[in-house]
Amino acid sequence: MASEILSQSEIDALLSALNTGEMSADDFKKEEEEKKVKVYDFKRALRFSKDQIRSLTRIHENFARILTTYFSAQLRTYVQINVASADQIPYEEFIRSVPKMTILNVYELPPLDGRILMEINPNIAYSMMDRVMGGRGISVNKVESLTEIETRIMSQLFEKAFENLREAWSTVVDVDPLFAEFEVNPQFLQMVSPNETVVVISLNTTIGETSGMINICIPHVVLEPILPKLSGSYWMESKRKESNPEETAQLERRIKRAQVPIVAELGQSDITIEEFLMLSIGDVIEMNTRIDDPLTVKIGEIPKFTAQPGKSNKKMAVQILDSLKGGDDEDE
User: Fold this and answer.
1) CA 274 to chain CA mean position, Å
2) DSSP alpha helices (H): ranges in the chain?
3) Please, are residues 262 and 299 in contact by the beta-carbon 8 Å criterion?
4) 180-198: per-residue pLDDT in tens?
5) What are the CA-CA distances from residue 47 to residues 199, 224, 227, 234 (Å)?
6) What is the number of alpha carbons within 13 Å of residue 162 lying toward its C-beta?
7) Low-confidence residues in the chain, pLDDT < 70
8) Spatial distance between the Cα atoms of 156 and 179, rounded to a whole number of angstroms
9) What domains can you pick out in the chain, each with its CATH number?
10) Dihedral (C-alpha) 244, 247, 248, 249: value to the nearest 10 degrees?
C-alpha cells in the first residue's frame, strides 16, 4: 500500500481520537488492512519502466560529459554539466513547469518519429552568448526582447551542441539530429497531446559563476521504436553477441595474417655523443656480445627467441635456437 503524508492537523486529530477512546489501535490496523486499493492517475501514466529510465539516464550522463567538453572549448571558461534527474510526466505538466519566457530549441531525430525539446534557462543562455561575443559571461535576462542577431547566435550555438547527441545515442540507435525550431514562449509549442507521457532529463549546468538548468523533453512517441533496446536484457544479449564463436574465430584469423616486424640483434654498445660525432668510414664499434654468443630475435621490439647467424640460398639468415621465457609468453 502506498504511504501517504499526513498534515500536522490530521496527526493531532488521530492522536486525540486514540487518547479519548473514539478509535482504538486495533480499529486503526483493521482500517489499514481493508484499504488495499491504490489510486492510479491516468493523466500520469507510467509508460517507461525503471530499467528504461536508468538506461536513458546513462545515455544522457554521457551526453552531459560530451557537452561539458564541447562548451568548455567553445566558451573558453569553466563549464560543468551533469544529470540532476530523469522523470516521466505528462507533457502538460512539463510545459507548466517551464518559465513563461525561456530559450526553447526543437529538434528532429531521424529516423525516429516526433520531435524533442531542449529548454535552456535564460541565465545560462545569456551567459553563453556573452562569452561567445567576447564578454566575461555575465547573464542579463531579457528573453522577451531578443534581437535577430542574438537569436541567430543562440540557435547556432545550441544546434551544434545538440549534434553531440548522435555520439551519446550511438550505442542504442544511429540518429541524425536536425534543428527544427527556436522559440521563447512554451505556450506556442504543442509537440504532442497534453496527456502524452514524456521523459524529462534535467541537467545541472554551471558556466563560470552562472548556474541553471537545461531540460531535455523526449516524448514517448520518439522512444517507442527503441524501447526494447533500453532494457537491461538487450544489453546482456548484446554482450553475448560480442562473444560469438564465429566472430572470435574470424578475429583470430585476421590476427594470424597481421604483419609484425622481426629483428635479429647482433649486439649493443654505448658510446658518448662526442665519439658518435667522430665516427667515420672504417671505424669499428665494439659490441657487448662475443662472436660465439647467440643473437636475440625481437618480435615487435619484444625479445622472443635466440638464434645463430648463417646463410640460406646465398642470403643472410638466422636459425632459431630457443625461445625466451617471460614477458608476454603467458599470453601466447
Assistant:
1) 54
2) 8-20, 25-34, 50-75, 91-97, 122-132, 148-162, 165-168, 220-223, 232-242, 245-257, 273-277
3) yes
4) 888 888 877 778 888 888 9
5) 10, 10, 10, 18
6) 26
7) 1-10, 12-13, 17-46, 139-144, 232-244, 326-332
8) 9
9) 50-238 (3.40.1550.10), 256-325 (2.30.330.10)
10) 120
